[in-house]
Amino acid sequence: MSETATPSFPKHLLDFRDWNRRQVESLLETAQMMQEVLARPVKKVPALTGFTVATVFFEPSTRTRISFELAARRMSADVVSFSGTTSSTVKGETYRDTLRTLDQMGIDAYILRTDAAGVPYQAHSWLHKPVINAGDGWRAHPTQALLDAFTLREKLGSLEGKKIAIVGDILHSRVARSNAELLPMLGATVVACGPAPLLPGSLPGAALTTSLREALYEADAVMVLRLQKERMEKGLLPSLPEYIAAYQVNRERLGWAKPGAPLLHPGPMNRDVELEGTLADSPQSLVERQVANGQAVRMAVLYHVLVGKS
Amino acid sequence: MKGDVLIKNAKLVDGRGVHGTADVLIGEGRILSLSGGEAPTVLDATGMILSPGFFDPHAHLREPGQEVKEDLQSGLTAAARGGYTDIVSMPNTTPVVDNAEIVAALKKKAAQIKQARLHPAAALTQGQEGKVLSEAHQLQAAGAVMLTDDGKTNEDAGVLAQGLLYAASWGLVVSVHAEDAGLRRNGVMNEGSVSFRLGLPGNTGYAESARIARDLEVVRYVRDRLANSVSAQGLLHIQHLSTKRGLELIRQAKQEGLPVTTEVGPHHLTLTDEALNGLNPIYKVAPPLRTQSDVEALIEGLLDGSIDCIGTDHAPHTQDEKELDLLRAPFGIPSLEVCWPLLYTELVEKRGFPLAVLVARFTDGPRRILGFPPLHLEEEAEASLVLWDPHSQRPVEPQTFASKAKFSPWAGWQLKGWPVCTLVEGRRVFALE
User: Fold this and answer.
1) Residue A242 at interface with chain B, using a CB cutoff of 8 Å
2) What is the pTM of this model?
3) Residues of chain B neighbouring A190 (CB-CB closer than 8 A)
4) Nearest CB to B135; choose among A211, A236, A242
5) ipTM of the complex
6) What is the mean pLDDT of residues B75-90?
């Protein structure tokens, strides 16, 4: 997409394929304005009055859903929720039929979470309405990457030339994939690190290494991913104690990064597994800041997708 | 210059080649000089050859749990008598060596025994069950140098792939007993004219080559998966190669640059399935003794480097076990104490196999596979050495073995090349009376 003086925005956020740096930066600036709205005593603006937004989660999630729903409500949109685990999908309805049924009810934008990569793309072709990807399988979680970028910029200023280490189960992580797509667009270098069975063979936007020391060395920020216990059950890792011994980000290892390098975690966190528990509560940790910023970023995304000018 | 031991007039042969004679002064665990000096202990090595200590990448020392067959004391003593300074022990013990505590305990005990040094291999999967990976990082920190489910075959290619990927993170080599369990069935000897004539269940050589072919594909997969992770490489070592066809596959893979290595045992270089004509279970081993054509190919492979090293697969059992019938007797041949003289006699003396190449296959070959630097006879080198006698000839006498397994398929064979003295870091751990 070409860059123009007044950037127009894609009417969807499936990943960052259709986004350029200028659009992303403009969106992050809008998020900054939303941050100011959220700091007011009355945290509500009329920007999306009359719009109806549906959160359609075919995979359970509490935090992301609440963050999106609050974001929509703070901009005066009406919000409906569909949860695949409690509604019609258990009766055997396909994703397509579920979404087209909802589409008959006058929804203006869909916020979609699925366990299968690509469903947001399929939904976009079925619905002809804005679709915001709230996580599709291992593939993409663009609003998480945006809130990570927002939080990093808040702390580090420009990301130009900054080294961001992402540590953990890279292979199965939509957070890692979206960050590897977004952060280099903003000038950062991404190094993704984990045990070899949890590293993809390649990852556009990121250098890969099995060496934690190499990944953390002189890093400007460290993002730690949640380790799913099912990785052990599937035979990809020996045990939790082994993972902790080899890959836990602890105080000593964080010393390999630049002094005071901020720590991020997309949550939910396994304390004392992927991250030494006390580090999560230390001044270096931006974990709570990420959650707070998530709402502002999602407000900005909804605004751009539905109203469409900056 | 002063040292602890002076070995006078020894001919030097190491993995680089055959050198001249020298007076080797040893002190502080190192070679201080190749041109003599003073020492309280002087060994006249006239007519003898000094080589770097042998390194066995594959021995079964049976401890813990199977001490009736062998233990660290007997096994490491047998190793030192065979000219070995370093031994990799297989983890198929009772319990299986699959956690850091056992590895550390074995290392500690071996250090107290002060014979050959022990480098435990640990299980690739917990309990060698072929399901959940073992804790490679912690095993390595405790002293494990290799991961293997040897004693069992790796039937699940996915588990092997994940194991290779994981081991790659730590630079650990994974070794495999490459036989397809479905193809080998319950074979007790090589499947061929001899097994058909004797009416014994056979184990086809294709069980080995089929599994090697599969494993090479797994290595290719791991190589590609790791192509973009700068620090890691998945190293596969194929144990006890026994077939010409398996060798061809490995040779081809090496030409392609795959990170794969292999070893051959003394029995697969000197015996064939014809040995089973006597119906003696002493010759029952896995993989089985093959044919003369396989033997010839393996010797050729050892020469051209397609085979990296000699691994004894020293596999002691009790006399009673080996006197069971051919269907029930356990697989395995003990060989730590005869391996060097056997191959020196059969390959170098009788076939003109280059001596320095054979030395390299006992020293630098296994060292390289395990990530140890080469060991050559030069000043400052670690004084882990073997002095051996290329001239005097005597028969193999299993009853004199330090190993608890006092039987040998080579009993009575007249051999030359017997070790005279073995030193580990300058300390004499074996000296012929």
Assistant:
1) yes
2) 0.92
3) none
4) A242
5) 0.85
6) 98
